[in-house]
């Protein structure tokens, strides 16, 4: 719990929503509503996050794709409706959060400022400035930890000042999380006088300047607390499924009815309380004592989230390779052509391309699908930097979460946490295990919808007559593969082996010059086929 104690001179409370876009189990809202004559529930439209960027590779701002912005707006609309049922409303203001908030604190005679504690670097920096102002102005600040089950700094303290870097050690330290609040509101204090602040309703994407946005193009997942609780209730009703849930099992190609909860976007925005989710799972386990256990169980997935939050909070430069003490220093390729082919679903590997189309259209894909495309981009085939893939996920995923996204990319690229680089996801056989007919590919890559089952995962092997019959000529209607998987994966394993040896020899203290030397050495040792293919790409480029 984060509390700045001082005598509040005003009688009003300001509840600043950022994440935690919900009424249930919201300690900041609970505290703000107690003993206050007026309550100002505020959300600030931050141009840093929302302003359209015409130069980005997909519709959206410089930081977020339109799917995620739309999901956030839906969540705010739902919050506003739920607040109105309690005699309140959501106040929307636009501008720099620091400037807007200070103006509101002054104009509304605020004595108590409440907001959920946030571990993301952007909010950490912003909150220091806000708390500093509030302290000088004699305003009480209440900033509880409620986005996560545990306070990451508590775990780090228990571990001697460093974050635990294995899941098992984290779980041992964590123990049981606090229970969710059981507060049920019949009403909230009214909104007071608004002064000269220009309050608006929750904007639409068009109001924000996204003129070309077509509603049919958005993610099929609807934002908001009401939808989150509905989805949770539906999941928990299937007690057997909850008890037997076992990651990494599940079908990554199931798209009509995905084989997972799809609660991650709701946890990301705090439309669903992780503590309440945890309690609901525990209630199911009590009625069905024979159930899976962490790390593979459903409860285990929530603990993975906590593990990454704690690792991220306690590791400087967690979001980059350079200067990150837990990240292997690897001489990744700087190849924009390969990156764009991956990002734009043009690798020539239908399983990979179909997943990337799903990501762009839905803003979501199954965790095993994420594993497939992340492995392919980095240590599996293309040897492109994990930071580049992270940026694409960060933009396009509706559940993109700073700590989890960076943690997973380091994991899947074998840069940290997981080091078995010889184990890769094949772009041609992995999807086939779940979907031999290629229905997932046919849905997201309609250009291949008539390709026979025997060739759907490797269409370049289809004879010309089959390609003609399927109305899909490889190299014209759908691209040839950007690499030969067999030789590329062999090459990646060799590079990873030599890189690991260097990291070990230098005890992880690998300099820029060391990486340059290693890169030259690795390029010289390339197989002739790979070298020739790379030369052809440079000539074409």
Q: Which regions contain 5 or more consecutive residues with pLDDT less than 50? A: 4-8, 534-541
Largest sheet: 6 strands, mixed
The mean pLDDT is: 93
Strand order of the largest sheet: 1-6-5-2-3-4
* Computed CA radius of gyration, to the nearest angstrom: 25 Å
Q: In percent, how helical is the residue content?
A: 40-55%
Give the number of helices.
23
By oligomeric state, this entry counts as single chain
Number of strands: 6
What's the overall geometry? globular
Distance between the termini: 55 Å
User: Helix and strand string, N-terminal first?
Assistant: EEHEHHEHEHEHHHHHHHHHHHHHHHHHH
Catalytic activity: (6-4) photoproduct (in DNA) = 2 pyrimidine residues (in DNA)
GO molecular function: deoxyribodipyrimidine photo-lyase activity; DNA (6-4) photolyase activity; DNA binding; FAD binding
GO biological process, one term: nucleobase-containing compound metabolic process
Cofactor: FAD
